[in-house]
Amino acid sequence: MMLILMDVWDSVRGFMATGGDILWLVAGVLFLMWVLMLERFWYVNWVAPKEHKGIIDLWNNREDSTSWYAHRIREAWMSQAKQDMNARMLMIKTLVAICPMIGLLGTVTGMIAVFDVMAVHGTSNARMMAAGISMATMPTMAGMVAALSGVFFSTRLDAKMKISLEKLKDSLPHH
């Protein structure tokens, strides 16, 4: 088992080395994005239903659910539930949008490395230019893959949040 882990770690280190230092930045942003998305999935699936049940119980235990004052209380509870639901979603969407930009930064730094090799050794040494080209393409690919995974899962998370809020709204009848 330890040998397999060491082989995996060596493969990851080799991949990161071919992509340059910018690839580590992409990995850090991707890690943060996924930590935040997993926290939101946990909140939506396990914490929010309990909180929503508490709000529904409070509403059902109210004697007055028809007055103007009761409607404002209902709106305040819905607004608070929506705010709690959408916490950290702006950060997630920002990280998703930043991933391709960091990848492009890797493209620029990789091309600078290629031009540096060309300036020192000329254009005849393709092997030396290959390292810079790899540094240019790997972060771009990694940034795009990170962004695509973030777009897919944050969209699913958004949809799940909207459904949960609509169910809460439907569970708080007003007349």
From TrEMBL:
Domain of life where this protein originates: Bacteria
UniProt key word Protein biosynthesis: no
Name of a matching Pfam family: MotA_ExbB
Subcellular localization(s) per the UniProt record: Cell membrane; Membrane
Subcellular location, principal: membrane
Ranges where the MotA/TolQ/ExbB proton channel domain occurs: 64-167
Keyword annotations from UniProtKB, A to Z: Cell membrane, Membrane, Protein transport, Transmembrane, Transmembrane helix, Transport
Entry membrane topology: Multi-pass membrane protein
Residues spanning the membrane: 22-43, 95-115, 127-153
UniProt family annotation: Belongs to the exbB/tolQ family.
Name of the protein in question: Biopolymer transporter ExbB
Organism, scientific name: Shewanella japonica
